[in-house]
């Protein structure tokens, strides 16, 4: 069965990103194997390697970095859930991408953002960064601009009025997950 990782792209105290990730994981879990990867569990040191990971065949990453790389290499596709900080993604998520070599080559990534503009600028930044590590971002993105604290419970349950909203976030997420799984199947087939 297809394995999808939902990545919580924030480690800040009081973050709301984890709620959004739980909600996304519930939707993915109805259609594929899913695991939430919280960057709090992967304290990756900031990259300071003298050679880009993609071009260093003799690379020996730090143990914390290797743990992250080994884990993400086991998945067929990804949902990156990002806050928008200062018109970009979080530093911790960008670093988690920067340390990658070839672990997510030709694997699809769905992007879910939140913030005052729905995380649009964070998502735009990720669309520029992810091809650099070989990932393929799917066309759809989910821009969550409603206040997360009021919209999604700590357990990842979307407020009923938002669930029922035509063309609202629930329908957008469902469409995005279907697209992610289509790309996952197509790319898995192409890699064989």
Please give a structural write-up.
- There is one protein chain.
- The chain has 192 residues and is an alpha/beta fold.
- It has one domain: Flavodoxin domain (Rossmann fold, 3-Layer(aba) Sandwich).
- Helices cover 38% and strands 18% of the residues.
- It has seven helices and five strands.
- It has a five-stranded parallel beta sheet, sandwiched between helices.
- The longest helix has 23 residues, at 169-191.
- The protein is globular.
- The model has no long low-confidence stretch (mean pLDDT 95).
CATH names the topology as Rossmann fold
Roughly how many Å is the radius of gyration? 16 Å
Report the CATH superfamily: Flavodoxin domain
Tally of distinct domains: 1
Quick recap:
The protein is an alpha/beta fold and 192 residues long. It is 38% helix and 18% strand.
Secondary structure elements and pairings:
Blueprint: E1 3-8, H1 17-29, E2 33-38, H2 63-72, E3 77-83, H3 91-98, E4 108-114, H4 120-129, E5 136-144, H5 148-151, H6 160-163, H7 169-191
Parallel strand pairs: 1-2, 1-3, 3-4, 4-5
